[in-house]
Amino acid sequence: MALKELLDLTGKTALITGGSRGLGLQIAEALGEYGARVVLTARKQNELDEAKAHLSGLGIEAHVYANDLGAFDSIDPVVERIVAEVGPIHILVNNAGATWGASTVDHPLDAWLKVINVNLNGLFLITQSVLKRSMLPQGAGRIINIASVAGLQGNDPRMTPTLAYNTSKGGVVNFTRTLAAELAPDGITVNSICPGYFPTKMTKGTLAYGEQAILAATPMHRLGTDADLKGLALLLASDASAYITGQNIAVDGGITSV
Questions:
Q1: How far apart are CA 3 and CA 18, in angstroms?
Q2: Which of 36, 75, 138, 147 is positioned for an S-S bond with 31, CB 3.0–4.6 A?
């Protein structure tokens, strides 16, 4: 099979959580460019509408559903709606996330629970729902979790403490490994992308506080750009990665290499 055919996503449906902006929207652009119909979920309908208009302007078929991963009872119904209205889900990108900056002794319990509920519990529940309703019955699927370099290492003491976030992303890293082994006989691959520092709404506060320290610790001496996740996301979503599973791949300018 030609390499272009291995990367072709025509006829595939990709569900991207937190897909209305930032890294999720960048991934939607990449998968849509290679033929996937993309389904975006996020909490804010106005941001979803803007993302849909943007993707439509690029010639990408996009569907949007307002949903909060922290509201667990809403997850099964939204997946059921997507499958009924758009079709079976072939690719799941678990991108939605939350963070909180505070010292451990001052970290509010409700903030801890918010981060864990979105980054781990919601991720588990939507993955379970998509497996039941699409991937296991069809005997194929691609699951891409967006973890973080924060799940691969501790936190530089010069930076704002983010214990809940780092803990949750460490959980995503091992969730990826463990689920990949379980699902390998079912034709479903599970991998994660571990971004370094990209300028997004979520990282705005971190970059305002510590961008120079981050750049000094990054061998490439730059932040991630709008294009830096796209190639890897396409690879992991396509048949070109059929023999890759259980991997947590850092896209970080080399920050975890030193």
A1: 30
A2: 36
Q: How many CA atoms lie within 13 A of 169 on its CB side?
A: 29
Q: Which helix (H) or strand (E) holds 45?
A: helix 45-57
Domain count, the chain: 1
Taking 90 as the threshold, does the pLDDT of residue 67 lie above it?
A: yes
Question: Cα(190)–Cα(141) distance, rounded to whole angstroms?
Answer: 9
* Within a domain: 70: yes
- What positions carry a catalytic annotation? 165
Note down the domain range covering 226: 3-251
Quick one: which of 22, 23, 21 has its CA closest to 44? Answer: 21
Show Cβ contacts of residue 250 under 8 Å, excluding neighbours closer than 6 positions: 149, 152, 194, 195, 196, 256
Q: Which of 73, 125, 76 lies closest to 96, judged by CA?
A: 125
| Strand, coil or helix: 54 | helix
**Strand order in 91-94's β-sheet?**
62-66, 37-42, 13-17, 91-94, 141-146, 188-195, 248-251
Residue 258 lies in a domain: no
228: domain CATH number is 3.40.50.720
Predicted TM-score (pTM) of this structure: 0.97
36 lies in a domain? Answer: yes
